[in-house]
Specification:
mainly alpha, 3-stranded antiparallel sheet, elongated, about 50% helix
């Protein structure tokens, strides 16, 4: 009887040790699973944020290109009927025919010149019905506030009546352009130009 009790007690102890070890293993796997799931979620969320930024940037660029196309087409109609309009220049030309260096003008100064330039273009196109008022009014207030047509990043779109090596070079001499995401008119790397659009590469 004494021997049997010892063996029974030994078996019970072994079972308890086995269950404790099993619980420890299960607990360990659960913690690893949770950490793995969290890591996967972080990677997935990072990918989604990156994708959303890319889509937003692509959408902003597409909207701006569409605005550039409409303005360019409207100006082409105006010029075909009339001639190159006298719009307040964004970067003036000197009497010798060479443009002044825009890098000597700070960006805030360029922004003011861009707004005056843009508003003059809008008035001209509306008055001559080559870009009807209702087409301007159909634009979101983010792009047209009744006076100024802005790109997707909030900067006035500029009409250049002449080429400039620091701004842009169009074959026919005139073009529209956007300051791009950085909102700086003199950094050509991200600027958008009407003459670069398919069908408008004059």
């Amino acid at each position: 009887m004494y021997t049997r009790r010892r063996r029974t007690g030994s078996r019970d102890g072994d079972r308890r040790l086995g269950l404790t070890h099993l619980r420890s293993i299960r607990s360990g796997y659960t913690a690893i699973d949770v950490l793995t799931t969290i890591a996967a979620l972080i990677i997935w969320l990072g990918a989604m944020v990156s994708l959303a930024r890319h889509v937003r940037a692509s959408s902003a660029e597409d909207v701006t290109k569409d605005l550039l196309r409409h303005l360019d087409e409207a100006m082409s109609i105006y010029i075909s009927i009339n001639s190159l309009p006298k719009i307040p220049p964004f970067i003036p030309e000197n009497p010798a025919g060479n443009s002044t260096n825009p890098l000597n003008i700070d960006e805030s100064g360029l922004a003011r010149l861009a707004e005056v330039n843009n508003q003059s273009v809008v008035r001209l196109l509306k008055a001559n019905h080559v870009f009807p008022t209702e087409r301007f009014d159909d634009l979101s207030i983010s792009y047209y506030d009744g006076l100024t047509v802005r790109d997707a990043w909030g900067s006035p779109i500029v009409f250049m009546g002449h080429m400039h090596p620091a701004i842009g070079m169009a074959a026919n001499g005139w073009f529209f352009f956007s300051a791009g995401p950085d909102r700086k008119y003199t950094t050509r790397g991200d600027n958008l130009y009407s003459y670069e659009l398919p069908g408008l590469d004059k």
